[in-house]
Amino acid sequence: MPGLSQGQVLVLLRPPRNSAQPVTLVDGIPLSPALGIGAFTEKTQVAAGQCTKVNSTAAPSAAALLGCGVTAGFGAAVHTGGVGRGDSIAVIGCGGVGMAAIAGAKIAGAARIIAVDVDERKLRWAETFGATDTVDSSRTDAVETVRALTGGFGADVVVDAVGCPETYKQAFYARDLAGTAVLVGVPAPEPAVELPLLDVFARGGALKSSWYGDCLPSRDIPALIDLYLRGRFDLSAFVSEKIALDEVESAFARMRRGEVLRSVVVL
């Protein structure tokens, strides 16, 4: 890539929606890389606009996280949700994206950060990323608990990092009447949400979806790297393990069991 010096770190990004994708022909068959990037391969072809240079002193395994999930979670809380100093936020789903939303809320100065999950292990992890309160929604009603923790009002921002009808309803009803619900968890094509239209009208506030955390890569990725290098955003804490390319299937199994946040492939 022009302008890239030795040792420089690149972060490959998901392309913006409706952007042209690079296509490789193999035996006359067009092959488009998933999300315009591809995965689990030693080489890939991407458009120059999908590459962002960052400070070369950043560990590649940490910088790589900003290509998608961590940036999406951080931005869902900070950019899409607009959480700020003194605000309250609830994050439903404490995987890698949800943890990034929790960490982002802490950096933004949120006063109360409520982590919601069904896995006690993830709730303990959430505390290390900045959660002030945890809710095991397999044992208690998440909406009622979030309201109780926020003086009966609901959180200023609720981030759904799961993306299923049940968690979206929780996000909708756990927010303050003027609050914001943010959907950043990618839903499956089939599920649908049913909400009383009167509730949508009467509760006010905002319902938003968050594509890549509403981040501008050329602005936000260098800024997040700077926070990381200054010790304010511990990207390395997201890296549960470093694996070889031929270990991805076992890493997926660990991910499904909830044993890891992020497995980073090292070539």
Write the layout of secondary structure elements.
Layout: E1 9-12, E2 24-26, E3 29-31, E4 51-54, H1 60-63, H2 69-80, E5 88-92, H3 96-108, E6 112-117, H4 120-129, E7 133-136, H5 142-149, E8 155-160, H6 165-174, E9 175-183, H7 197-203, E10 206-209, H8 217-229, E11 239-243, H9 248-256, E12 262-265
Parallel strand pairs: 5-6, 5-8, 6-7, 8-9, 9-10, 11-12
Antiparallel strand pairs: 1-4, 2-3
CATH superfamily of the largest domain: NAD(P)-binding Rossmann-like Domain
Gross CATH architecture of the largest domain = 3-Layer(aba) Sandwich
The tally of structural domains comes to 2
- Assign a percent range to the helix content: 25-40%
What is the third-level CATH name, the topology of the largest domain? Rossmann fold
Query: What structural category characterises the helix and strand content?
Result: alpha/beta
Number of DSSP helices? 9
Q: How does this model look, in words?
A:
The chain is globular. It folds into two domains: 111 residues, Medium-chain alcohol dehydrogenases, catalytic domain (Quinone Oxidoreductase, Chain A, domain 1, Alpha-Beta Complex), CATH 3.90.180.10; 139 residues, NAD(P)-binding Rossmann-like Domain (Rossmann fold, 3-Layer(aba) Sandwich). With 267 residues, it is of the alpha/beta class. The chain contains nine helices and twelve strands. Helix 2 crosses helix 3 and helix 5 runs parallel beside helix 6. A hairpin with a 2-residue loop joins strand 2 and strand 3.
